[in-house]
Amino acid sequence: MADLTSFNEQKRLEALHSYDILDTDAEGDFDDLTQLAAAICDTPISLISFVDKDRQWFKSHHGLDERQTDRCHSFCSHAIQNPAHLMQVEDAQNDQRFQDNPLVTGSPDIRFYAGIPLLDSDGYALGSLCVIDNKPKILNESQQKALRTIGNQVIDKLLLRKNNKKLLLANKNLMESNIKLKATEERLKESEKRLKAAISAANLATWQMDFHNRQLSPSPRMKELFDFNADEPMSCEDAVNQIAESHRQQVIDSIYSSFSKVEPTEFEFPIIGFHDKKIKWLCANVQSYQDMESPNISYLSGTIADITERKLDEQRRTDIVGMVSHELRNPLTAIKAYADLVNRLAKKAEDGFLSDKMSKIDSQVKRMETLINGFLDVARLGEGKIMLEKSKFDLANLINDTEIDSLEKITSHKIIFEPAEICIIEADRNKIEQVVVNFINNAVKYSPDESVITVNCCIQAGFVTLSVKDQGMGIPLKYRPFIFDRFFRVESDAMKNKKGFGMGLYICKEIIERHNGQIGMQSNEDVGTTFWFRLPVALASA
Fold first, then answer.
1. pTM score > 0.85 for this model?
2. May I ask the CATH class of domain 313-383?
């Protein structure tokens, strides 16, 4: 462990504290990254750990309830001693550094650890992104590469968070100074100086526009981002024309909506360079205000950041998920083939014990296939490559087929399929069936054995609504707004033994919304949950 009194360690701690990240609330962006790391590395635990003076504190703690541990027991404190390399401990019980560590001899029973140091722009190791398992293992090259990429994402989010806080604070100070008519010119100049320093440090573009005459005043950095020469004029129309057509109207609507909001409006969009025709992704913050001397005159002002690299990293992350999923398919197919062969031989030899074990292997193979298909669906959604093969079919027939399959496979619960009338919809039958099956499987997973699950389908005002109701644990109120988010899982004692990576409902939402439908849920804790989706009924043929 590092000497806590050393000059470099003190500088490292100063760098860590400058981010104001310690003891902050959980944030979905960071939780997405730990869930993704755990999924790709196939570990039950993944942490974003920051190493403080006497402790390691977890900004995100997927698979672990604790928010911090003593630094003297920290694996991550060792990992940051070699900032340029990934640290792997194949079996902590056989490693002299950790074999007597209470985190190894007791909960959470660490055997395997892999951590990539989180280096800020000055090269200080703030902590690590790590994955942990309770059995020995080693990461393959694809998993190591993925962990490094995700670690870079953590640092990018930290830097963006830090720069945004600086900018908002400086902007707030400037606006307060402008509002107070008694402020001296010297104070105004100082505030402007701080704001310009913050904008410069964050490499942000600024602009101002008179809303009535559409006169745009862009900063040199804004011209640079849109690929205009410094001496070239750049009008409001010029800027709008460089926005990709796919997002142009959305940006215009966002700007107009900012007049009715007190808070700044933030949105992301791609542009095409005026000269080089290269695509960039930008993140804009827009604020409206009125001239203090002429209240009838309204202005818009804002900042623009280049987020192209972050968007590329997100694409790389999606590519990694797809690549790893594809690589897992081949060995899994071979395992399934061998398992089927052995199962047939066991049945022929009337070996009940072996036949039972092979059936369990087959069940786990099917579970892995479901997980891999889920990862591939997430990757395809991120790339916009999920294609819908629409046709007209009777939803009642799909429900009937699902009923036959469910009653044959599910014996732990009482599933009631209420009668459904003929209902023709135009949709991708396989994808709609995937949503219905996911709803039913979730109801089975999160409700007690022998309880009742009800599947209902009704038509009203040109729309059909399908719902699946259970008598399960329900969803706490604080988690309900995020239940359809990618990789989101409820963190509670009741969920510790529930397997999954939080992709199913996210995929269901994307499927339904790509059919121009709606999806939702109602839940009461300890009473049950109802998931539903609504689709338009197909128009009758002429």
1. no
2. mainly alpha
